[in-house]
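re: ur question from earlier - yeah i can do the single chain one, its not a big deal. heres the input i used so u can compare w yours
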Amino acid sequence: MHDRELPEQNGTEPMTPEDYNLYDTLSHLLRRSHFHAEAVFSRMMRPHGVTSRQLALMVAISLTPGSSQRSLGDRVALDMNTVSDLLKRMEKRGLVERKPSVSDGRSVTIWLTGVGQRILDDMRADNAAYQEKLTANLTDAETAELKRLLQKLLDLRAE
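and the output i got, formated as tokens:
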């Protein structure tokens, strides 16, 4: 039974496990997988003092130095308030810096600092180990298929 195929309840009969198995729903499995991935990330990356969302921003900044806050948010799929909050904390730690835009004096561009780049470089090996740990129970083919299917699900987000 899929999430969207919940049986109608008339209000008098309680739902039974046969009606709706929470532990077999895609939404529940995705949520649990996300929590697991975040817990493993926190444990493995703690020495670097960077969260998974901060790492995503650092990677995006390193790939597109001088980007706007909005384009970074779009790139890592985070809303503007979250990106702003993350960048403020990262700026306080000396990981990123804001510079006035050359093309528009009212806006700023975001850059990794030397410290930010060093931390990102240091995290590469640990991030590879993190990815390995997440997929330890999967074959390479299963990992590739999981990535393909998750990307296919994410491609539906515009609807």
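Residues 114-134 form the longest helix (21 residues). not sure if urs matches, ping me
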